[in-house]
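Submission sheet (multi-component)
Chains listed below:
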Amino acid sequence: MTFDTLYREYYERLYRFACRMLGTAEEAKDTVQETFVKLHSALGSETRIKNPRTWLYTVTANLCRNQLKRKTHYRDVILKQLEPTTTQESVEADIVRKERLARMQKAIQSLEERDRTLIMLYQDRLPYAEMAEIIGVKPSSVAKLLSRSIEKLTKHVKVEARS
Amino acid sequence: MNCIDQETLLRYLDGEMPIPDRKEVTLHLEACAKCRAEFEATEASRELVHKTIASLEPAEVTVPAFEYKDPKGLRRSLSSSRHPGLTTTILPRAWMRPAAILVAAALIVAVAIPMFSGDPITPPDPSSETFESELDHSNPNKAWHQRELVFTFRNSDTYAVEHAVITSTRDENQPSGETNSPDNRTL
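Outcome: structure written.
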């Protein structure tokens, strides 16, 4: 695969991944650009890349992690205003739905760095083996970590709703 | 089979299970109401997480041109696609690929047909002393047709987009099949 093909195929996916991780479009854009600069250098130096997708996600995840470490705390994500799914949906139901999503977003921020990265990678439907390689765990651990994170997030949302 | 834990249900939902194990889980779910309820709850949680994370992403993404510095320190730009600044949306794009292939094929045919139809084209020898007079369009006995084709390609070393011009001329008065100079088209 040429650099051009990889750039066209993965730019959008990596950009969305970086947006989820970092919370701001500007930082996501810089991070993804830096990822592809590294890819360009690696291909130019004839470095052998076994799996380009895993390589790209790993580099992007590491760059995002470094970026987040530079901040004193995980920046609050500006919640998107969600449009109602149907015109028949009542205003109250729409508010409840938005509140639930807002609680979930807050819960994601409370996850540990590795678990949060895994949940963000999970969004792109990557195979468990690739996600394991990217975050540096055994493939057999991925299901357990994901299951634990999803349970934690769901419980957090329910607890917040009750309070 | 014993009742299924959430971890197994997740692997089942994500297709991360060998087929024999998958069949076993399916059979158990058909038979066990408790596990079926657990399955539905896991599926709902999974969907909620996916939906929430999707809300953290932008709706539209424009893929910018890639800029880098070559070994000589010169800034170069690489168009990320045939259409720089192409905006991609989250709408289905399945119809765009076949349409793009058809348009590309039609363009190739439109260019290729005039190129390969008619008599062989031989350009005049530019070193010939009579070259300029041969290009004198006021001479009614000489009718020159000049064709210019521009090829756009990407340099595989620098990734820069470059252009090459191929010019060919033909003397209509020359009998077909005869040439008075070798084909010296250059790129």
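Remark: Chain A touches chain B through 43 residues (CB under 8 Å).
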